[in-house]
Amino acid sequence: MKKLVAEFIGTMTLVILGCGTAMLVGCDAVNGCGYILTAFAFGLSIVAMAYSIGNISGCHINPAVSLGVLMSGGMDSKDFIGYVIAQVLGALAGSIILAAIFSLGGVTDMTGGFGTNGLGGVNGSAIAGLLVEIVLTFIFVMAILGVTSSKAKHGSFGGLVIGLTLFGVHILGIGLTGTSVNPARSLGPAIVAAATGNMAALGCVWVFIVGPLVGAALAAVVYKALED
User: Which end of the chain has fewer beta carbons closer than 10 Å to its terminal beta carbon, N or C?
Assistant: First the structure.
């Protein structure tokens, strides 16, 4: 139960800081600094959580990461299901908190949808969006599996490496899909956005569930083949 609570808190924090920053500064092509600030917010969220809950749950805070760990033999299916439920609930809680803050504070959501992901950067192409998410998640999960491997020699810098990798994939991905690489991070804001009247937020959310899971599965298969 402690692991699940840690995953809930971690995913909630990721959404509040990452999506909240995106909502505040916007992520359009004109406002380039918004890209960097949002990328930093997601990356630094991972760093903070890695060093606070990493020793409790492993700090997956992402169903795609949990899938990669499951396929690599690092957890069983029962724990995997529990982790995913805790992560989705954490993302929902984070999105609800953001909705309350922005509503009560009268703050404008510059993203127009609680930091939800979209296909605007790839001209609405679901196939292109899937490819982006598969590739970026593959890179992210490969880094995580490498850093957390028993053969790794990164010492206490593992959390920093993972955070910087997430920062890196966001730099490219924000302009294309908003960067998901995390089904929970996409689903939570989309549900809350839909609940507040933006039903379009759910229209392409499947891309940001399927893409990261496929990318993570591929990363697990490739990493295991390379490591063995």
Answer: C
